[in-house]
Amino acid sequence: MHSFGYRANALFTFAVTILGFMCALASFTDSFNSPSPSVQVQVLKVNWFQKQPNGNDEVSMTLNISADLQSLFTWNTKQVFVFLAAEYVTPKHVLNQISLWDAIIQEKENAKFTITTSNKYRFIDQGSNLRGKEFNLTLHWHVMPKTGKMLADKVVLPGYRLPAEYR
Amino acid sequence: MDWQGQSLAEKLMQIMLLGFAVIAFGTGYLTASFQTMILIYAVGVVLTTLVTVPNWPVFNRHPLKWLDPSEVEKHPKPQPSSNVNSKKKPIKK
């Protein structure tokens, strides 16, 4: 504490160290949050279902996604990235996952939503396995904090089935 | 600043910063606003800087008593003796 510069430096260092501790503490308070999200997805309609010239199946469908993710938000949440993935089994691969739709939610109010949309990303199989295929629709979310570790979780909705024939 | 002033300034800095941090965190947590916490803390840091870093007179209330110039002449500085130079001996291997 001898000179002006010395004091200024000491203060700055201490202030930034304390800031680091405050951010760590803020991140820690997230562990007290127990989220209870609810999700419902309906396949309203299969728009078309074709085999591409290269041999891969492609399907386009209209989805109704209704979710309440408000409980995921805390004071330390910057945004929530949510995406819907279709999961199914084929003889060649045990797990196939395709992202059909995603969104970024930046405000808690927007986390409770219902949206009717056709799939944002194309549902193309590697091969020709989709006729009559049973699949799960899984809603994944990534909670991105202002400070700290990102949290990723999901809910699996089973029991969807694609048509048996191309249309 | 004098010694007492330095000690006071240092203690004041630590207490003020910690105090503002606690207030900032508490307010931010209760209002669920991260921005509030950062804002209050930033204001606190600026305030602490204004109080503890400049050389305010309150930190100079016990000034050091330097020796009066007239006294210096009465006690001349001792001259270094020739013995000092002979201390360095070459290292013999």
Number of strands of chain B: 0
Helical element count of chain A?
A: 1
What name is given to the CATH topology of the largest domain in chain A?
Immunoglobulin-like
Q: Uncertain regions of chain B: pLDDT < 50 for 5+ in a row?
A: none
The quaternary structure here is heterodimer
Element order of chain A: H for helix, E for strand: HEEEEEEEE
Shape of chain A: elongated
Characterize the structure shown.
The complex is a heterodimer of chains A (167) and B (93). With 167 residues, chain A is an alpha+beta fold. Chain A folds into 2 domains: 1-32; 34-161, Immunoglobulin-like (Sandwich). Helix content of chain A is 16%, strand content 48%. Chain A has 1 helix and 8 strands; from the N terminus they run αββββββββ. In chain A, strands 1, 2, 5 and 6 form a 4-stranded antiparallel sheet that branches. A 4-stranded antiparallel sheet of chain A has the order 4-3-7-8, with no helix packed on it. In chain A, β7 (134-145) and β8 (151-161) form a beta hairpin. The longest helix of chain A has 26 residues, at 4-29. Chain A starts with a helix and ends in a 6-residue tail after the last strand. The model of chain A has no long low-confidence stretch (mean pLDDT 92). Chain B is mainly alpha-helical. Chain B is 57% helix and 0% strand. Chain B is built from 3 helices and no strands. The longest helix of chain B has 28 residues, at 3-30. The termini of chain B are far apart. Classes of the chains: A alpha+beta (167), B mainly alpha (93).
Topology:
The complex is a heterodimer of chains A (167) and B (93).
Chain A: H1 4-29, E1 38-51, E2 57-68, E3 77-88, E4 96-105, E5 112-118, E6 123-124, E7 134-145, E8 151-161
Antiparallel strand pairs in A: 1-2, 2-5, 2-6, 3-4, 3-7, 7-8
Chain B: H1 3-30, H2 34-52, H3 69-74
